[in-house]
Design goal:
With about 230 residues, the chain is α+β, with helices and mostly antiparallel strands. The protein contains seven helices and ten strands.
């Protein structure tokens, strides 16, 4: 079941207040239209009745696709809520949930993302049957080999599943502040397939790098730099 609530918000342009319905949880099995709204950047989008400004309200949201066993928690990274704080609080919540669960019941696998584009990317990735850890391993390689072009401090690297082919994976560089899309980088599908074979034979290296629930090459690079 999807969960929504009525919230009073103020237009960021003209200051007009209004009551709007915002979703905290989306179940695509019971409400498939909400998935369409999310994928087309319309979920939790509001239009001001006075100045007609259209803007999106980002708030923590749980995306649930029971048929595909997809459970993704999106917690927006903001100036008030930094990445480190989100990761620490989420880890603490997961530990509490694990402790509260009976021994014979396994907690469902949950993924954590920090932006809407990462949520959409992950949905496409899982639905396409791609291995998320291997994809992030590829991103890690691209980041470290192209530091001048793809700086993790200022840019994201997103997999464009729709434009990828049987011959190559298509990655696009996005400015993390302006959300502007830039350079397209292509990676051989055969190299990805070879890494998937390595993962199947011995997944330990991938699991050590990306234990989850936030599986992200960009976050790993930023965390490593903070530790150093």
């Amino acid at each position: 079941m999807s969960i929504s609530r009525t919230v009073k918000i103020t237009c960021p342009s003209c200051g007009t207040p209004q009551d709007v319905q915002l979703y905290d949880a989306v179940n695509v099995e019971t409400d498939p239209q909400l998935k369409d709204a999310l994928m087309h950047n319309q979920l939790n989008r509001v239009e001001c009745p006075d100045c007609e400004l259209s803007f999106r309200v980002d708030l923590p949201m749980l995306y649930n696709d029971p048929a595909r066993k997809i459970l993704i928690h999106w917690v927006p990274e903001t100036e008030e809520t930094a990445r480190e704080q989100i990761l620490e609080e989420f880890d603490r919540s997961m530990e509490e949930m694990n402790s509260a669960m009976p021994d014979d019941i396994e907690l469902p696998g949950v993924r954590l993302v920090l932006s809407r584009v990462e949520l959409v990317e992950l949905i496409f990735l899982i639905e396409a049957g791609l291995n998320q850890r291997v994809v992030e391993y590829v991103k890690y390689s691209i980041f470290t080999r192209n530091v001048e072009k793809v700086d993790p401090h200022t840019h994201r690297l997103l997999l464009n599943v729709q434009d990828s082919t049987d011959e190559e994976l298509c990655f696009v560089v996005q400015n993390a502040d302006t959300q502007e899309l830039g350079t397209i980088l292509r990676y051989g599908r055969s190299a990805y397939d070879s890494m998937c074979e390595l993962y199947d034979e011995n997944p330990d290296e991938f699991l050590d790098m990306f234990p989850g629930p936030c599986i992200s090459a960009r976050n790993l690079l930023l965390e490593d730099e903070e530790i150093a």
